[in-house]
Amino acid sequence: MKSKKQLWVIIGIVAMNSIGLSIILPLLPFIVGQYLSPEKVVIGMSALVSVFAACTFFAAPILGVLSDRYGRKIVLTISLLGSVVGYILFGIGGALWILFLGRIIDGITAGNISALFAYISDSTEPKERVRWYAYIGSAMGIGKLGGPALGGLLGSIDLAFPFYVTAALILISCLAVYFFLPESLAPEKRTKRISLNSFNTFSHFKNIFSLKAVKILLLVGILFYAGLGIFQFNFILFLKDVYKWGPEFIGVILTIVGVCDIITRAIILPWLLKRFSDKNIGITGLIILGLGLGLIIVSTFISSVTIISFALICIICGSGLFEPIYNGKLSQSVDENKQGEVQGINQSLQSANNVLIPLLAGAIYFYSPAMLYLAATLVVLVTLRLYTKRT
C-alpha cells in the first residue's frame, strides 16, 4: 500500500486541475464570440462540449485498458499533456477550427480521471477507497470555488491569458506525476497482452457489462448521473427564469453549494463511514438527493428562498454522500488488472450523459420546469430501488 503522502499528491493534482478548468468557464462565451455571431455562440459552445464528450466516450475505455497494461503513471502523464496542448491551442486561437482541435486533442487523451481513480484503487485497501474518493470530490470542489473568480480577473487582462495559466497549472500537475508519484500497478498485476481489439471501445463495454455485478453498478451510476445531471445543467437557468435571480445572487448561491459539497465529502462522509455501512450511507444519500429534487418541484409552485435553499443543501449533500460510495463499490467489483478498464467505462458513460442529458432536459424544461424535476426525482427513485435491491 502506498504512503498517505503519495495519495495526498494525487489530491493536490486534482485540486490544481480543477482550479485550472474552472478558471476558463466564465470566458468560454467571449472566446467563442470572437468567431461567431451572438445568436450562434450557444450553438458553438454546445458543439465544443459535445465534441469533447464524444471523444472522451470513445477514448476513456481504451486509455483505461492501456493503464491496466502499461501502468497508471504513463497514461496519466499522456492525458495531462493532452490537456496542456488543448488549452494552449485555445489560447492561441485565431480560428474556430483551432478551438475544436484543442477540444479533440483534450478529449482523445481524456484518461486522467479514470487513471487517478485506478491509482487510488491500486494504492488503498478496499474499505479505505470511499474516503479517498470523497477527498477527490472535495479537491474538485475547492477548485470550482475560486477558479471562476480568478478566471474573470485574469480574463480582464487578456482573454487568452487564463487558458495559458490553465495549461501551466496542468503542466505542473504533469511534472508532479512524473517526479513524485511512483507507479501504483505492479508488473505482476497488469494485463498480460494488448490486441487490436483492445482499441475497440465497444469491446470493452461488452467485457465489462458481461460481469453481472459490475453491470448493475454501472446501471446505478447511469441513472444517478442522469438525475444529478438534470439539476446541474438546468438549475442556473431555472433560478434565472423562475426566481428571476441575477448573476450576483446566483453566484452567492453557487458558492454556498461549493462549501456544502466540500464539507459533505471531506468531513461528514468520513465521520459516517466510521459508524455506518457503505450501503446504508449510499441509500441515505439517494433519499436526501431525491428529497432535494422533489423540493425543487414544490418551489415552482411556492416561491420561497427557504425551500429552494433547503433543496440545494439536500441535493449537494445527498450526491456528496452517494457518489464516493458508488465509486468505491465500482472499484471493489473488479480485480486490479481491470481497474483502468472499469473506470474508463464509467468515465465514458458520464461523457455520454453530458451529451444526451442537456438535450433531453432542455426539451422537457421548455415544456415545464416542474415536469423536468419530476423526471429527475423519478430517475433517482429508480436508482434507489435498484441500488437497494441489487447491490
Strand count, sense and barrel status of the largest sheet are: none
Name the overall outline. globular
* Count of β-strands: 0
Oligomeric grouping of the chains: single chain
What are the low-pLDDT stretches, counting only 5+ consecutive residues below 50?
none
| SS class | mainly alpha
Portion of residues in beta strands equals: under 5%
Molecular structure report:
By secondary structure, the protein is mainly α. Helix content is 82%, strand content 0%. It contains 15 helices and no strands. It has helices spanning 4-24, 28-32, 41-70, 72-92, 96-108, 112-123, 129-157, 161-180, 201-209, 212-242, 247-273, 278-301, 305-332, 339-367, 369-390. The protein is globular, with a radius of gyration of 20 Å. The model has no long low-confidence stretch (mean pLDDT 87).
